[in-house]
Amino acid sequence: MNRLVYELFQENPISPTLPPLMVCKEFRRRFENTAERYLLSNADALNERLLKMEDHSEAGKNAVSEINQKIRQGTTALVVLIINQDLYVLNCGSGLAIAMNSENPVQLNTNLHDKDNVKENQRIRALGIDPDTVLNPTRAIGDLQRTHLFEETEAFKNAKGPPVISTPDVQYFRIDPAWRHIVLLSDGVVQNLKEVEVENIPTEVSVRLIEDHTLTSTAQALADSFARKHLDAFITMNDDKNCFISNHREEMTVIYVKLPEINAPGDFYETVDSAFSTMESTNATMADPPSRVPYVDAVGFYSGPNFTEMKRLITMLKKRK
């Protein structure tokens, strides 16, 4: 995702003067550029895999197995871009963005990319694939065995195209003055809540959301609450032969974003990954760091005027610390 940040904010940033339709097109194009660059970064591994597949020795098979583990890696993406009072949501996968107000939460991206989605189900069937043979999510960056080498899988060998694609959806909203926060839920959160039969996730978030002293502790409490709900359901239903809930809980990430007031500077956001949660206390306040230094990704970026300017800015920031 660092590459996407670079595409959006460093290399010819999207102009705030563009009309919303053009911003949506640019947002989508730059995400697709990121997906393409990820594929290119794995070109050597794919070529090596092709050569190793001709080596039927034990060493050759082990080499192919190691490469397969690498190219199976992938990620979903849920990105929110705010330009003045315009809000854009890009989704590739089954993450969920929710706008919170004092009354009813608003689900911002309604088209989650999994088999439960009617459109995704129809897309997969149109390829000649049984949707039941496709694991969720149905859209992602990477996952090259299902996006580019899908014909090697028995269930997909006669398919007209890949079951998993990296094409995102981008939606535009004018920020409602009643919106106070945006909650972003990773696909792991969505999967865990669906597994315990939560039908209305925005309402579930609204009921469980308790604002704490910091954005971090608020997000932490929400992630822990979801984790306990999944655990409680597993314990309660474990003896029911007709109900299956996995004892493996998907890792969950919750991002809690405070929206800026009208004509006011934007606030920061905090992110919490449930993998770091102890679940011992959901009310513990996590102190904010004394200073915030922007993160800059400079991988593969070693020349040109932008590089010179980046070095100047980094040097200036270090002097301020």
From TrEMBL:
<dbReference type="GO" id="GO:0004722">
    <property type="term" value="F:protein serine/threonine phosphatase activity"/>
</dbReference>
<dbReference type="InterPro" id="IPR001932">
    <property type="entry name" value="PPM-type_phosphatase-like_dom"/>
</dbReference>
<dbReference type="InterPro" id="IPR036457">
    <property type="entry name" value="PPM-type-like_dom_sf"/>
</dbReference>
<dbReference type="Pfam" id="PF00481">
    <property type="entry name" value="PP2C"/>
</dbReference>
<dbReference type="InterPro" id="IPR015655">
    <property type="entry name" value="PP2C"/>
</dbReference>
<feature type="domain" description="PPM-type phosphatase">
    <location>
        <begin position="1"/>
        <end position="259"/>
    </location>
</feature>
<protein>
    <recommendedName>
        <fullName>PPM-type phosphatase domain-containing protein</fullName>
    </recommendedName>
</protein>
